[in-house]
Amino acid sequence: MKIYKFLSLFLIAFTLITISSCSNNDDDDIQNTEPGNLQLKFENGFNNLGNIVLNQTTQTSSSGQKHQFSTLKYVISNISLIDENGNEFKYNYNNPDKGAFIINQAEAKGGIVYANLTEIPKGNYKKIKLGLGISPTSYLIGQDGQGIFWEKAKQEGMAWSWSAGYIFAKLEGKYVTSSADTEFMNHTGNMGDTTINGTADLYREVVLDLPTTARVSKGITASIHILADFNQYLSGQTALTLTQTNQMAMGSSPHLVSVSNNLIQMFKVDHVHND
């Protein structure tokens, strides 16, 4: 009887330990659903050569035109992550105060400009979507609805007056002509309300495949390394040549429409870290 009684007590104890262990595992699963962070690393370069050095790195376009940048800035917004099941997480969509970033090559550290995203749902992400510029929907929220980013954009020289709106990409530098180096200044952007003003919409979006899965969780901050090939500026889907007619272009002229179409093609994901 004592043996049976001992076995009964042992089985009860084992059952309680098993239930407790399962309960703890369930608690861990609940904790593991907590959101994590994600870091985007933008490396601006020419072709496969990263880290453009302002006022120094020179590129020759497909038309044979040598040029270099003294200023290189652009706005990234409306970031989305698409997981292995095709579900899309929109990061502060149409909310520039929380979801827009100015990528400024002058602030690059080791050739990289960082954008840190927080409160990303736990998941295994396969694609990323980027917006170049600020969407018309975001702009129409009004100045009061994006006051923080608007002030930052003004301080960074990435805005005109509110009625004119944001500068999406600011490219300045010099190009070689037959006689001497000539300055250029191309500033792309929507001129206020494009519908009312009848102007072109230069906001662009692109979806990029990740070469490996970005695994986001509370304990892991994944990073996505994005190359931006500024050879696309003049040598993209439309080959462009800087001339006296377009070297000082601002807004949404036909030349800058072509620039915008070229620039959205410059992004690709080089690699992903899950650290």
Number of strands: 13
Give the strand content. Answer: 35-45%
The outline comes out as: globular
Radius of gyration: 25 Å
What structural category characterises the helix and strand content?
alpha+beta
Low-confidence parts:
9-30
- The overall pLDDT average reads 90
What does this structure look like?
This protein has 275 residues and is an alpha+beta fold. It has two domains: 1-31; 35-274, no CATH class. Helices cover 24% and strands 38% of the residues. The protein contains seven helices and 13 strands. The chain has helices at 2-31, 96-99, 136-139, 147-155, 194-197, 232-235, 254-263, and strands at 36-45, 59-60, 66-83, 88-91, 101-104, 113-120, 123-132, 169-176, 181-188, 204-216, 222-229, 248-251, 267-274. The strands form two sheets. Strands 2, 3, 4, 5, 7, 8, 9, 10 and 12 form a nine-stranded mixed sheet that branches. Strands 6-1-11-13 form a four-stranded mixed sheet, with no helix packed on it. The longest helix is centred in the N-terminal third of the chain and has 30 residues, at 2-31. The relative contact order is 0.18.
